Amino acid sequence: MKPTSILKYFAASICIATTLAISVTTNKDDVEGFFAKNKSKSGHTNNWAVLVCTSRFWFNYRHIANTLSMYRTVKRLGIPDSNIIMMLADDVACNSRNIFPATVYNNRGRHLDLYGENVEVDYRGYEVTVENFIRLLTGRVAKETPRSKRLLTDDQSNILIFMTGHGGEEFLKFQDAEEISAHDLGDAFQQMYEKKRYNEILFMIDTCQANTMYSKIHSPNIVATGSSKLNESSYSHHDDPDIGVAVIDRFTYYVLEVLEKVNMQSKATLKDLFDTYDYNLLQSTPGVRSDLFFRPLDEVLLTDFFGNVQNVELTESKEVNNSLTETDPALIDSEPMFIEDPQAEIASSPKQSASWIQEQSHTFEIGNPDQSQTWRYVAFAVLSVAMGSALIAGSSLV
Amino acid sequence: MGLLSRLSKAQRQQIFGRFVLSWMPTLSYIMVAVSFFWLLALPHQDYSKRTYVSENALLPGSANVQFNWDDNLAAEAYRDTVQSIASLPSIERAQALEKQFAAIGLKSATQNYTLHTSTESLHGVNTYAVFYAPRSDGTEALVLSASWLSRDKTTNTNAISMLLALGKTFKRGSHFSKDIIFVVSDGEAEGLQAWLKAYHGNEENIYEHSEEPLRVRSGAIQAALNLDFAGTGDYNALGIFFEGVNGQLPNLDMINTINLISLGIAPVELTLHDELIPYTDNMTKNYLNSLRKMLYQMKYQAVGTPTGNHGLYLKYKIDAITLYGIDRPGWHSQRFNLFRVGVLLESAVRSLNNLLEHLHQSFFFYLLSDVRRYTSIGLYMPPVIILGVSFIFQALSLWGLSGDLPIELESLAEGDKDTPVALPYSRRSRNFKVASTTMGMAIITGAATFHLLTTEFGLVGETPMLKLVASVGVCSMLVLSAVSTAHVRNQIIQSVYVAQKSLPTDIDNKESSSCQDSNHVVTGQELTPAADWIMLKTLILALSALFVTTLSALNFSLAVSMGILIVLPYMAFRPSRWTVVSIVEALILLAISPPGLMMVASWWYAKDPSDVLSWVLREYEILGTWLLPTACFIYWPLNLAAIIMVLLPLS
Hints:
Shape of chain B: elongated
Oligomer: heterodimer
Strand order of the largest sheet of chain A: 3-2-1-4-8-9-12
CATH topology of the largest domain in chain A: Rossmann fold
Order of helices and strands of chain A: HHEHEEHEEEEHEEEEHHHEHHHHH
Helix content of chain A: 25-40%
Largest sheet of chain B: 9 strands, mixed
Strand content of chain B: 5-15%
């Protein structure tokens, strides 16, 4: 027998041994669990939001307010401007018809100016087109496109896509000029899937006959929700008599009412949100589509999409905290706290934010804490000995 | 046999064709009946729909107004000012008003104009002021206008003081996307006409009209509200006038906007025009009320005269209506004062301010049977088209019968066997010379009348009435000469024909009656040509159809009234064997001729015929209504030709 073949066998055996050893010492979840999906973990490492207002003109004030409200929410829950792509006609705040120049309000009370501080609109005015939207999603943007106008996602990205405007059966109008169909949207999502541009998508749409818009999506890991079913209109919630227009739509209003009570450490799930849908409040039949989504909705955190709560690698030392078992205090709180300053909220509860850090360290720790480390070393030693003897036996046979 | 079978087939076709042709007149009368009933059904509730705001941008009455009690007090103070300057001469009161606008802080100016018509020259001074929207680019504007003279022929005091008060209110606001122009015009319509002309830089007829160019300007006018609030008192209801020059209408959303505001933020009773009709459950009464409203609109549309100064804007593609304060003491609705008017106007301006483009979503063609009910063009166009088609059917059947039959229609009807029967394909010659000459002469006469009426010759004692009498004289000369030459010509032809025919008639008869083995075909030359009146009537009917259908697209009411007036006489009348009948027909046609209708109108409105004539002339010269040209170039020539037609010889 040639020494080379002996070497080959030797190398092969080493490989097998190592693989086996690793498979025993660390279970699969330990390696992949950090990224991989399972029932309760989305497995994403970054969050993106695409917020699209497809309307322009003064009388569509409410659509711009819808979008800016969502923008404010996702920003409050931690998604940075670099990860938010906002498409907005943006012709309302500085419209000469606006009796309160350079403001956008989503409530008659006018406590919160949505346009007040640091609003970053990525696609503005006439840039809000179907082409730009689809290019954005599928990543087929021109070379010279700045980073702020690109959706730089990967297969670890959770994306919230929020759209609002005037729509109909399986279409959504873009600025009175063109329209996107449900097929276009389904196709764009399929391309995103094929190009591994997302991990999970939450598609939320507030328009007339909105539920028809997600009927043509066939790509996995997408959960979709809309404001009204086929042949139903979605209505505005209320108008501001001083501004003279409707300031927010019903669906967005009631979604926001839930989201306003959510903070970054919230354990509220998508199911909690969907359960709040009420025909009597919305005056339309909201829809949820989760057949493409493989995690149960009651284990999908709202912050998986609306927030930027990410998996982080942790140190050896772990601190078990009981806060996991606590129910989220914010959700129980039934006080209407629709419009609130997120900064103030966080500042008022430093204790809570501290517990959040601990919670994070617990939740996203590598490996299975139930397994004994010593058992692994023993198993490794036994396997190595067995493999070594097998190797010697094999070579002597040859 | 081949020839025979071909013949019989052709004969069958001829029989069929004749059947169709003989049924066509009956069909056309049925169509006329259908059309009449359809028109009468239009005011019925089942044929109209509720109006609705179609333009999303308008958002009527959704915004709070800023017009407050202080503004109301200001308006009342302005009322005294306006009253004190109202009786001054034009130039002085215009300047006084200019100062008032300037005091508010608006850029204001006056405009002199002199307008020469063929009979008079009108002079006046307009005042106007512009509120420049502080945050807009100044490319668009809205107009609020009022004339010094209300439609009640009293001073338009409240309206003018309202303009001043609104100017003051708007000056406080920063939410305007369009500039707002305030115009106080002199005279009746000519003042605003001069202002609009100068604003749009229309330089035509520079010798006839001279208006001072405007010194203060703004952007393209998007919409206008004309105010007519006479006197200084309160009002019971608000009337909307919307009919413009030549039947043009503003976009229905203008009316819908006021409608919604009057139901919400500024509750007032709203009605069309100045008629207040009590509510009733009675179907018949409702129908009659709707009919009355509709006829009111159609009357003004047909005549082409606007029901208020708003009508002038429409010529410049500016949607406008007049709001008229109806003061009817004893009427049940709650009376309202200037405060309510101010709120309503500010809210309306706020709505129009929301517009992103010209009003275009709602209807431009409609009939209103109530301020909240409309009949759309899809429903009211068919009857007038049916009317046009009935003319065409009648003309076609005449045309077909005139060519197909070798014998006179009369003898066919009487079953006269002595006249020759034509073989298939034989055609009687149709002579259009007389018909076309007559029609041409009639049109030339109409055109001459038009120029006679509209030109000033500078002769002593020259009046429109005198000119009209002269043209009537010319027309009657035309009729007389045409009829007499036709009769003379007819006698000559007849005598020549009888001389030619005396020999071969018997042979013709024999051969035609036993035509199986005959190769002899009765040729066109041997038959008498179709009678001139048939040709003329065909031409008249065809032209009537053309004009009625064409006009219906431009001015429905004018087309309908013209169609209804002429359809039965033109279809039924024909020369008669008895001269008396022909003369009666001619007299009826004379009654529906323009001079005849003028006499009827002057009797109906208890006015002097010359007043009616000068009114028509004035409307044409100042506003450019189509009534006079239509009457002279279309209606009268057809009428003249019809009179000649019934007086022509029978064969």
